[in-house]
Amino acid sequence: MVWRNAFLDPAQAGGWAVLYSQQHFLADSNGVLFPRDWVKRQDLPIIGEQGIGHFGEDAVYLLQLKPSATLEGCTWQSLRQFMLQGEAETFRMLAYAAQIGTWYAEHRFCGSCGAPTRQLPGERAMRCDSCESQHYPRISPSMIVLVTRGDEILLARSPRFVTGVYSTLAGFVEPGESVEHCVAREVREEVGVEVKNLHYIGSQGWPFPHSLMLGFHAEYAGGDIVMQEDEIEDARWFRVDDLPPLPASRSIARHLIDLYVARRLGLPEPSLP
């Protein structure tokens, strides 16, 4: 089934519900969609509700819960788990739901004056009647880049990574900065080298609040590896036929690596999930 986001009126009955709190969703053996009217009859601490779109032909609503919420036979699963293990359209739905849920949780009170806000009818916006501010969902762009040098690729690992795994370089775009400038700056800061011939590859909604990850390929332009203290534990050049353990296969980081390796070795090119 295909996911299509839309603004739906929560006053309407029926449909399906996804149950969300802090980048996690309640799921049982049947998945993450629950009969909405049934959910509302359960004793759950619901903070708010948003109509978020259609999964196939069915209306879907987001029910925001307190973190302490439990439902028999269900467990909380992270958005990252669904990205790496779930069906692609389900992840698209949940990525959107997580963004909307985070926006709602962070704007129940006005960031300008502190007064309570209310949702505008028919619009994805929280309005403060006290100072007339309106707060809309926002996206924070970030970049991820594979740096290459012929048959070699530059990979690094953070102390936060799974032991032994190496990945591409990534970082958030700063205010007033283009994504292209962000790529050059982050590579320079993290490993001390310069890049050239930057090419956009693709994007992926990232399981981190507000994030959209923009993927690039760049060629090495000069410099020796100098690792950023406290951020990079190790960084090396690896040959495309002799790579270390890599990120999960459905991540954009892995796609950048697999795509370049396929092109260098004459293999079929993978598609980004």
Blueprint (SSEs and pairs):
Blueprint: E1 3-8, E2 16-21, E3 24-27, E4 34-35, H1 36-40, E5 46-55, E6 58-65, E7 75-78, H2 79-85, H3 88-106, E8 118-119, E9 126-127, E10 134-135, E11 140-149, E12 152-157, E13 169-172, H4 179-191, E14 194-205, E15 211-222, E16 234-239, H5 252-265
Parallel strand pairs: 2-6, 11-15
Antiparallel strand pairs: 1-5, 2-3, 2-4, 3-7, 5-6, 8-9, 9-10, 11-12, 11-13, 12-16, 14-15
GO molecular function, one term: zinc ion binding
EC number: 3.6.1.-, 3.6.1.22
Motif (Nudix box): 171-192
Number of beta strands: 16
What is the name of the CATH architecture of the largest domain? Alpha-Beta Complex
CATH superfamily of the largest domain: Nucleoside Triphosphate Pyrophosphohydrolase
Helix content percent band = 10-25%
Give the CATH class of the largest domain.
Alpha Beta
What gap, in angstroms, lies between the N and C termini?
15 Å
What's the domain count? 2
User: How confident overall, as mean pLDDT?
Assistant: 93
* Unreliable runs: none
Cα-based radius of gyration, to the nearest Å: 21 Å
Instruction: Identify the overall geometry.
Output: globular
Helix/strand/pairing class, anyone?
alpha+beta
